[in-house]
């Protein structure tokens, strides 16, 4: 039986306006946590959206819907 990918979220607060949100990822195509497992960005919570630009690691930048502040990595 094949294991499901591990899904997780990391909470954050906009440093400009204080709005709270979370980034969501899944890790390991086979659900493993072995060294080198690939983390894949899936989405961001309501109140934020993905911008056109990318971070240094290739994930989309996250932008606050309230104040348009780009969120730090």
Give a description of the structure.
This protein is mostly beta strands and 73 residues long. The chain contains no helices and five strands. It has strands at residues 6-13, 20-27, 39-44, 48-54, 60-64. A three-stranded antiparallel beta sheet has the order 1-2-3, with no helix packed on it. A two-stranded antiparallel ribbon has the order 4-5. Strand 4 (48-54) and strand 5 (60-64) form a beta hairpin. The model has no long low-confidence stretch (mean pLDDT 86).
Q: What gyration radius follows from the Cα positions, in whole Å?
A: 14 Å
The unreliable regions are none
Q: Compute the separation of the termini in Å.
A: 35 Å
Largest sheet composition: 3 strands, antiparallel
The strands making up the biggest β-sheet line up spatially as 1-2-3
- Individual helix count: 0
Report the order of strands and helices. Answer: EEEEE
Chain oligomer state: single chain
Gross morphology = elongated
What's the helical proportion of residues?
under 10%
Give the tally of β-strands: 5
**Beta-strand proportion:** over 45%
SS-derived structural category: mainly beta
Mean pLDDT: 86
In short:
This protein has 73 residues and is mainly β.
Which key phrases capture this entry?
single chain; 73 residues; mainly beta; three-stranded antiparallel β-sheet; two-stranded antiparallel ribbon; elongated
């Amino acid at each position: 039986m094949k294991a499901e990918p591990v899904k997780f979220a990391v909470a954050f607060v906009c440093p400009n306006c204080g709005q709270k949100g979370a980034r969501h990822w899944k890790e390991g195509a086979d659900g493993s946590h072995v060294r080198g497992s690939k983390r894949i960005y899936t989405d961001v919570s309501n109140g934020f959206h993905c911008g056109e630009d990318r971070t240094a690691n290739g994930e989309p930048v996250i932008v606050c819907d309230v104040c348009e502040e780009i969120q730090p990595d």
